[in-house]
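= Tokenised fold =
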Amino acid sequence: MVKEHARKKCIHIMLAYTGGCNGCDIEVVNCVQSPFYDAEQYNVLLTWNPREADILIVSGCVTKVMTEPLKKIYEAIPKPKAVVAVGCCALMGGVYGNIGGDLGTSDFIDGPVENIIPVDVKVPGCPPRPEDIIQGIVQALPKIIKEETEV
């Protein structure tokens, strides 16, 4: 009961880096923890524990090495959950998408995030602006809030 009450009062986001240049990761952390954007003042907190997360933010192209860990992280997040794919690499492989051939047929890349797990919100950019990332998080909230009230 305490856990459900806490989830209604605070949104926990988890950042999963699946390959790439880390530009998107820097912008996500900038949104939450920097004094300029400071999403923490609105109870949006960054967590590294999937069992605490409400929203999974995935950045980077999904390398073959990260495919199974990403699926495990997704499964460990309790329902209701939402997934936000951040950056061109997460959406379509970015500059890494054509390594060794067409997107998804590479020896290194398994393709965009939506080929691995379901994606609720897509935030394009290389890297995306912090304002766009915050908007993506806000767009994912109705799914979480709606399912919480139905349970």
Summary: The mean pLDDT is 84. The longest strand covers residues 11-17. The CA atoms of residues 47 and 123 lie 20 Å apart. Residues 130-150 form the longest helix (21 residues).
